[in-house]
Amino acid sequence: MATKSNTKVSGKSSKTPLSGNNLSKTDAKGKKTVTIADGEDEVDDQAESFAYKILSQEQCTELLSLEVTDIQKKLCETFSLSNYRTHLQDAATLDYYTSAIWWGKQQSFTPQQLSGFFTVVHTLFTNVKDQHLHLVDNLKEMQKMLRGIEPEYSDVKSAGLDFFNLQQAKSISEYMFTSLFQHYKLFEFMFSHTQAEEIIGTDLEIEVAKPAALPFPPPLDEGVEESLFTAYIATPPPSPEPEVTEEADILHLEPSEVDDSAKMSEPPPVEDIDAFSELTPQDVIEVVESVTKELMSGLQLDIAAKLREKENNLIQKINKVHRVAETT
Predict the structure, then answer these.
(1) Is the model's pTM score more than 0.85?
(2) Which of 120, 123, 128, 127 is nearest to 185 (CA)?
(3) Coil, helix or strand for 163?
(4) What percent of the chain has pLDDT over 90?
């Protein structure tokens, strides 16, 4: 406990009697009390409470009923951290505050306790973020805020967290060490260096329709495959005119003209010729042999290839049997 005359009194630092004009005595409950000597400035009777400095009672009550995602959204609105998706410092701040609120909810803190705990978290984190306070100095700040929780000396006044008990104060101290002070150098580096900006550009090419005065492309051709356009959208080509056949001409002729045209179109008579009468038996044998060779040559090649394939398979199996016999 520090007075304006720089006199320090700690309830847990030393059990030896206080020297000088400070007097020590024991009260009815067995606790030691410290009396400041005459001429010293009197200490304020009631310290200002840390509850509801950063978060109000309504905000703490609402946060205790939310899940992690909703807590993050609420804190993002409260502390104006809208750039947390792209700005690293905002993202780290939002993540740290969210984890602190969730930890307080897991500890079953009341709204008053949650508000006081968040005041400690916010103060120490701001000391790193904005004030760039040294690690030792920030540890001293935390020690000051946790002072007076179930003190050994009854005259040691609370710094504003008297609604916590000693076990809860130890848990808060351990949480601050594991979450903030163990990573202090990392936080100092992040909040003292400017984040590199990455500008990512994307070129998008868009093919627009040509003027309507041009014959191509038609309006419905945009975004349609050529095969689909040709099959279902494009105007089919004109069908060719049917050719005039001789039969059609005959239909339009007079009966006399039809007889004349029929006589003209009839093929000339062909004389009956017996082609086989001039063939000898030897010629017939040669023709049959040549036809048979042409038909059977492909079949023979097929059969030979299959026989060779089976022969190779059998040889491979025999070799495998020999190798197995040699190894055994």
Answers:
(1) no
(2) 128
(3) coil
(4) 27
pLDDT surpasses 90 at 175: yes
Phi-psi region of 264 (alpha: psi -120 to 50; beta: other; left: phi over 0): alpha
Strands of 148-298 (E only): list them: none
| CA dist list (Å): 112 to 53, 61, 173 | 10, 9, 18
Higher pLDDT, 5 or 180: 180
Q: Chain-centre distance of CA 4, in angstroms? A: 56
Mean local confidence (pLDDT), 52-62: 90
Q: For residue 284, what are its two tokens? A: 């017939």
pLDDT at residue 40 in the model: 35
Peptide bond connecting 240 to the previous residue in cis, omega within 30 degrees of 0: no
Contact assessment for residue 251 and residue 261, using Cβ atoms and an 8 Å cutoff? no
Nearest in space to 35 (alpha carbons), one of 15, 13, 12, 9 = 9
CA distance 29 to 153: 11
Q: Among candidates 10, 187, 225, which has minimal Cα distance to 89?
A: 187
The pLDDT tens digits for 274-294 are: 666 677 778 778 888 888 877
Alpha-carbon distance of 37 to 21, in angstroms, equals 5
> What Cα–Cα distance (Å) separates residue 208 from each residue in 43, 203, 223?
80, 16, 10
